[in-house]
Amino acid sequence: MQCRIYLDVNFAPESLVDIGFEQTRYLRQVMRLQAGDTIVVFNGRGGEYLAELMRLSKDGGQCQLVEFIDVHRELPCRVHIIQAANRSEKIETVLQKATEMGASSFQIVNSERATLNLPSNKRDKRLQRWQKIIVEAAEQSERTAMPEVVWHDKVSQTSHHGQCFVLHPRDASMWQDIRSDLLQQKDITLAVGPEGGWTNQELDYFQSQGFQPLCFGARVMRTETAAPALLAAIQAVL
Description:
By secondary structure, the chain is of the alpha/beta class. Helix content is 31%, strand content 28%. It is built from 6 helices and 12 strands.
């Protein structure tokens, strides 16, 4: 397998593209690459490029785009994750695994039973870390699109697309009853609660926005398990 990295720039055939310091250090010190070697680069806007490394130094690197590869590895329907805030390591697990499984976007929301306190002065740094985890997962899993993550202070600030489900057993449909409906969808939104679940007020809000309560099975999953498990099931159906 060739080394594959994400570059957040517009690509043009045969153009020279700068490589940031951290990625250059990874290519040099971890992958032991040097000028003349080839890598794969992508920008999350469709397809990827075979590129030749032109320069790798302590202050950064540069590659030249050689050949465009018109490949698409995304799910046929976009799956958006609303994840209630939990301890940071749990959120990181969700971001990593759900990115690998094909999630299109993430909204982390400070629900009433949230176990993560993220004050505004620490938010940008945390979001940068979360986005880096997504980038690394997208590079490893050979995604051709790049999910983004945002933070919301309240459930009412979240957005939703397509067919929407809130994970909760109250008056819920069973997975086997709705899975055939997914074949017709272009977007699906999944709202996954915190440890302890969504409150009645939050459930009422989601249902007022058209979310359908969904029960995935007879067992109760941990909050960090639900999104990757559902994505795997959706991928199998699609």
